[in-house]
Specification:
It is a single chain. The model has no long low-confidence stretch (mean pLDDT 93). The chain is α+β, with helices and mostly antiparallel strands. The chain is 33% helix and 26% strand. The two termini are 18 Å apart. Helix 3 packs across helix 4 and helix 6 crosses helix 8. The strands form 2 sheets. Strands 5, 6, 7, 8, 9 and 10 form a 6-stranded antiparallel beta sheet that branches. The chain has a 4-stranded antiparallel beta sheet with strand order 1-4-2-3, with helices on one face. The chain binds adenosine-5'-diphosphate (ADP) and magnesium ion. The site of adenosine-5'-diphosphate has 17 residues, from strand 2, strand 3 and strand 8.
Length: 238
């Protein structure tokens, strides 16, 4: 059994609903999907020293890690573009105070590097009760949330399927650099789709243990695709 399946099973045995973001990102990294360089800092530890020791390059991102907080932005739990270690430390102070006033006790922080600018894409997957793992792709933000502009395929997909999925999106032109944006690198999105939904991908390997994977967003620049958020929801059944 590989580390990925072992992590899913051990979380299920502990009755956990979903892996936290650092654990999810470790799995993505193990599967060859790029994630930001990061460090996890326990609440109360010296966040400046930890970020410096990890050699992280500013600008940095500060994120809340807390049991039960799924949408970090909803509670103000994500701070972007912190330019110095001082800004990082004071952002953590402020966030701690505001979270406590909402009754949220941070377990710790995820401090990570900012991904290069690019288009925000969502890659995910669910388990269809009849057909098994399905992989999904959409454009981030309002395209997924409001316009439901997503495409699905049964796993395993081929590279040709992955390309077709992207072409099917109503907003596909945005990936090609419409409206003055830089063209996103379609090949790197195809690569991520294969690692999630292809033969031997995360969805097929997680079948039985997994309910859902959500990479929201994958930030796709001309050079790279970086998964800046990751959620693995576990199967509650037997
Ligand atoms: P949430 O739990 O609210 O979905 P995310 O981790 O997705 O939190 O962060 C919210 C938003 O902040 C993302 O949609 C993305 O636009 C931006 N973001 C998060 N992490 C990074 C990063 N490392 N680099 C650049 N932008 C980021
Ligand atoms: Mg997110």
């Amino acid at each position: 059994m590989d580390d990925y399946v072992r992590a899913l099973r051990s979380a299920r045995r502990q009755g956990i609903d979903a892996l936290d973001e650092p654990a999810g990102k470790k799995i993505l990294e193990g599967a060859g999907i790029r994630v930001p360089r990061s460090v996890v800092v326990k609440a109360g530890d010296d966040i400046r020293a930890a970020a410096a020791a990890a050699g992280l390059q500013a600008p940095l991102v500060l994120k809340l890690v807390a049991v039960g907080v799924v949408h970090k932005s909803d509670v103000g739990g994500v701070r972007l573009n912190l330019r110095t270690l001082d800004e990082l430390a004071s952002a953590a102070q402020e966030l701690q105070t505001s979270l406590r006033s909402r009754g949220i006790e941070p377990q710790g922080w995820l401090v990570e590097e900012m991904a290069p600018h690019g288009a925000e894409v969502v890659v995910g997957g669910t388990m269809d009760p009849e057909f098994g793992p399905m992989v999904m792709v959409g454009l981030g933000g309002i395209f997924v949330e409001v316009l439901k502009d997503v495409s699905f395929r049964l796993c395993p997909i081929t590279k040709a399927d992955a390309r077709e999925m992207l072409e099917e999106l109503k907003g596909a032109a945005l990936l090609k650099g419409a409206r003055g944006g830089a063209a996103a690198n379609v090949d790197v999105i195809v690569d991520v789709l294969m690692r999630v939904g292809g033969e031997g991908g995360l969805l097929l390997r997680g079948e039985g243990d997994l309910a859902e994977i959500d990479i929201n967003p994958l930030i796709v620049s001309p050079e790279a695709a970086v998964a800046v958020d990751a959620r693995f929801i576990l199967n509650k059944g037997p």
